[in-house]
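QA checklist item 7 of 12: single-chain prediction sanity check.
[x] sequence parsed
[x] length recorded as 531
[x] structure emitted
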Amino acid sequence: MNNINLCNIDCNLNALKVCSWNVHGLVAKLDVDTAFFDFLNSFDIFFLLETWVVDSFDVNIFESKFVDCKLFWIFAQKGNNVKGRALGGCLIGVKIRLLSNWTFVPSSDVPHLKHKNGTFLIPAYFSCHSCKVWSSNLQVFSDFLTQIDSEKVVLLGDFNARVGNKDISIHDSGRVSGRVSKDRVVSNKGISLINFCNDFNLIILNGRGLGDEEGQLTFFNAQGQSVIDYALVSEGLYDQVQSFKIGCRLESDHFPILLELRGLGVQQSSSPDFLLPLVPRLSWKLQDQDLFKVQLQEIIAQKNFANLSLQEAVTDLNAAIKEVAVSRKPVHFYTQPWFDKVCLVARKKFHKALLKFQRVSSTDNHELVFIAKRFYKKICSEKKLAYQQDLVNGFEGVADPIAFWGAVKKLKTGNNVTSESIKGSDWYSYFKNLLNPQIQLNSFSTANNLVLDWQQDSPFLLVELKSAVSKIKNNKAPGVDTIPGEFYKFLLDETYEVILGIFNRLFVGEGFPDAFTESVVFPLFKKGDIN
């Protein structure tokens, strides 16, 4: 195997996570699929091929789907497609924190990303419409690689060529391990692709281990299956490949290509520019009220809160609540209200069938996948149609303003509006200055005759605490601790005594816990210039 000096790689850098995926149309994913965008947001860089998005489409709608990414568009070309859609199109997404290292080069022939160390990351789509067009695509990439003359190249994408188990000539030297493939077919285009790899010392990662030990299929439809999506890396980058896998997703006929490269990521930072995602709040609806308060008191009774510092007391109280509370990981595959539990069950069956096919790619398993897929699509179509009819019926039955606005509310979308040009550090500085104003005190006066009102200045009583807690409104957003107010409204008196002790220690000036100084800020755009 070709060795490189790993000491030259900064060990503090994280691996770069890259996804390349022929999504077979992007706009349709906006309406329903939340899981699709969640998946893509888990990568540092992604290439989405065959988006079919033309330059007349308002692409700003995607900004709310990729809030911490810079998006670069290569628009699809309007052509004489028999299906009436545009051809091609690519979306490149790069995490904003990586832009100091990666630059987008909008070349007319081969748009790509270039790292400051000279590494090229290139999305590739070779058209399948004719051999002439495919050969033209191959020539364009050959000319480009000849021009840049680099030994640090990564090509990812849909090459529409089947190379079967064939391998590059460098394998014969024993410097890299061999490769396998579940697709045994070798096409003329595949032979041309192998020659292309040999000309530019590119190594095909598919089926070469590193996470793809069996050479998984990358394309699957009713007519058959094949390996036509590849990751090609220069020999000089091969030792930086940490993993290569073929993902299992339902949203396209193609499966995503997942690649991790050492030494090309960035170290995570605690800077305000790196915004934390909203943590799912605890739900009081999931709790057994009587069981919760008893179990919470059992945990609290194990500690002497009076001997703890104020900071420790608050931290341990929050930890006890979270330990006792029943939590459920939220599953939001789809944003549309018509997507219910029946749809979710059908989706899981479809996904299970697809996983089974990836393990054993038999004809029977191929048929099972499409039975599950047809059923899933049928259920979703029926649910969507029924929901739309329900909306129509809602307006037909309008008899007063309340009913009218209730029907309108169903049509509202909950998409967040975001501004790409306003950084996290800007939001942080703004609210820090707003909530912590600098007050200049040139002089101040003190009372000569301090009057103590023992009724006002005496410690809080248990009855006062319980009265205040009972007035907490339900269904309100929690703070950073994710604990809503309902969790404090139904406790045993022994637990309230502990909480009362914390507040009385606060009252006499013992300190102020960190948790009381932190908040979740969620700006809402009203009007004006969003930037």
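[x] summary fact logged: The two ends are 51 Å apart (CA to CA).
[ ] second reviewer sign-off
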